[in-house]
Structures
1.
Amino acid sequence: MNYGRELLKGNLESLLLYLIKQKPMYGYQLIKEIEERSGGYFQFKEGTLYPALHRLEKAGLIRGKWDRSPTGMNRRYYYLTEKGEKVLAQKLAEWRSFSTAMNLVLAPVNP
Amino acid sequence: MTEAGRYLVELEKELRLDQGAEEEVLQELYTHLQDRVAEFCESGYPREEAVRKAIDRLGPAKSLARKIHEARSGESWGRALLAGAPHFMIALTFAFHLWRSAPWVAAVLIPVIAAITYGFRKYKPAWLYPWLGYSVLACGSIFVVTGQAISFSSPWYWLMSALFLPPALWLAGSIFVQALRRDWLFASLALLPFPVTAGWLLTFEKGLSYQGRSFEELDLGVALSFVALGVTTVTFVRLRKRLLRCGLLLTATLAILMLILPARGTVLVFLAFLISSLLLLPALLEPRLKRSMEPAWLKQVTGGG
């Protein structure tokens, strides 16, 4: 099992909420943004993105709305809801505590 | 049909969402494919290969549709209770011996009609199907009750039947087809009150003193069986996994019927077979209907292309 893929799977929803908070985006745009920001490290089956987006929408954390993109095409943009903002803040706080603890444990011990 | 069109058709077969949500999902995935194909074409791939690669990035249609279905199904508690409401209303009718009261029966029919009208305008949400089942049952009940009131041998009854039966059958048939177009499991959900009602009718057929008890004494049993149906429906609507939903419908209906009818041994096996056949019948009919509706929605999603 690919460890990196598993890590991404576990944190995909946080990543999506964070990116949507920056600006409303549509599915394809989110994939490109994640790939770009991670320097190509995060590459996942695109089929996992849409179920995750629909899960977040069902939970009321994001809201989908059809808008015209700059190219003139209709795209389903996702917006962060108030509830989504709260959940994102919690998830980010948890992630920061977790990564700090991981770094402390994995840091080289000076003799 | 293009390869992208075939992929979307395959997706649609497994999505099983309400009409509005389904079109939205398909349109979203179609625009995604358009973007990916354009990107691959810009990188120098021939169009056919670009389409194939874009589809490959999305993964198998069946698995993607199943994941989206699971992500979007599983209703809130409010909607789940709304789905169970008609069963609870019937339970209330029997618990308080209100089935003889014409105003109460009329008061029950009004929310049924209102819920169905509202549900149809809302792209047939999951909570609507138990209400649809009761509307068919109500049509049948009116037919039987009228027959008893004016005598089955009366020419008036047969004249009324000739006028009433065709539209009633048409209504029942169209409701069944509507449910099948969404998801055969919802057609089974709509059928849920039928075996239980039939079970009680068989019990009542034994006469006024079934096991030494009167109709009124049996009312509590009837009420409890409909409460059980309500709880089954609420659980069904809350669940996300199709397999669990299917198992729940079969086992709960069988369990309720076993409590109503004192069935044992071979009778029990026969009963299990009968219930499974009734509730799984929509699964056999669904593929025929799904096939007949492909072109219309595909045209809508791809804009005729």
2.
Amino acid sequence: MITASFLQDPNFIRSAYILAFALFIVGLMGLRHPRSAVRGNWIAAVGMGIAVVATLLIHGMGNWGLIALGIALGTVIGVPAARTVKMTAMPQMVALFNGVGGGAIALIAWVEFRESHGFDGDPLYIAIASLFAAIVGSVSFWGSNIAFGKLQEILPGRPITLGRAQQAVNAALLLACIACGVAIATGSDSELLMIGLLVAAALLGNFVVLPIGGADLPVVISLLNAFTGLSAAAAGIALNNTAMIVAGMLVGASGSILTKLMADAMNRSIPNIVAGGFGGGGAVPGGGGAADLEGKTVKSTTAADTAIQLSYARQVVIVPGYGMAVAQAQHAVRELAKELEKRGIEVKYAIHPVAGRMPGHMNVLLAEADVPYDQLKEMDEINPEFSRTDVSLVIGANDVTNPAANTNPESPIYGMPILNVNESESVIVIKRSMNPGFAGIDNELYYDEGTQMLFGDAKTAVAEITEEVKGL
Amino acid sequence: MLVTNLAILVLAGFVGFVVISKVPNTLHTPLMSGTNAIHGIVILGGLIVLGLSGEGTLNKILLVIAIVFGTINVVGGFLVTDRMLGMFKSKPEPPKKDAGAE
């Protein structure tokens, strides 16, 4: 059959791969603006469909039953999960999807090892690429699962460390991975070495992510995303598959950029974050800035009083943080904003790049609550606005508003770019208690002249304020 | 072949940097979950290895798991991204009438 042989022509399949990765790039370009983003995502999905169909056309494909079984099972598991996941649970969902990708890569590399009897007769680069994919894929799988556990609160969010031995253990595990890899690449076909490599990488993935605290997870999730991408690209080199190389590398680049952005937004280096246990190094919780705060008091306020202040404001800036996500207060916040807007008050949202548990977390939550995206202001855009803002309403955000980052060189977060809420006329902080934030440091903002604290659950408190505003 | 593939790898890296650098903070979560779906491309690896050789029970089991994982990654990733992006709106919708639900 002419048609069949044409479709199975390796050059036809390679062309389909080119079309597929071109669509990935076009799709990602669509993500530059919310208007074109939905279409961009579908364009990338079409690219993926083309790549899968082209692969199935490769001459000599078999095991159709098993292929169908795998795809069917994956669909049955993936679709409902994606359909029903709550927006507040998005970070862990992304971590989980990232993890299974890494797991797939590690498994494929393992089977390649088994089928080729330790890459016997393969060029060296194939062995190296496969082993790299196996190590990084395995690290990514286990690391993502731990991140998922922390976000889902199956595991405690606080850092779990081995103390001083941590670095040494991690280094030893990495060396073990590399040693197994070198032994295999230089000719050994012992499967124990391959299993040893996968196990050491698995332990490494666990030990790297366990010591990382909740607020650093945005960095880790994007780092693991980059890892999975890079290992997919390596697997593509091993299989001589251009679609995998390009797609993997695009993800690797995107994950690296996001990781860098997140780390910059915390004024910390990536190695410093991965080393884990913030506050365990030079930063002593309660030291530095906290000492100056003794003797100062905080002013607490009520929902009714907050409502009055808000309704006499011209401009209100809402500063959401992880506390808003935990309390699922985004809809309540939107209701309040609507009430204020009805009264002609300008409402804006100040979004710190690392607010929440993944890059852009707040934006997704507020979008879910129908907040138009043009009201969501990035840090650089909103900071000059605070000086002409009457009331800043801080909802469940802490460290990202701490003026010590600007003024106190002894503070562990000194140098971190923050939202300058203290420049506004008055600040109202909704918070459950005076407990310090993730960094374990007191927030000088709370002791400021212009700051009032409204203690309570974010959702309840915001709803109360809204009722009071309505009653005015 | 290796050199060509390395060239593709490096160029893809630069394209990625250029394209992704222009994505605004607002869309970083969908960007993550969208790129997440794209690395589900590893499913091709599972299909190729299982379809073209895939001998032995253990190998088959491992590859089927790999394909399941890859499919979850692709299908789940694109769907979840679509759901998220569908929520980003520019203008406030007309207020919904809750018929005194409050």
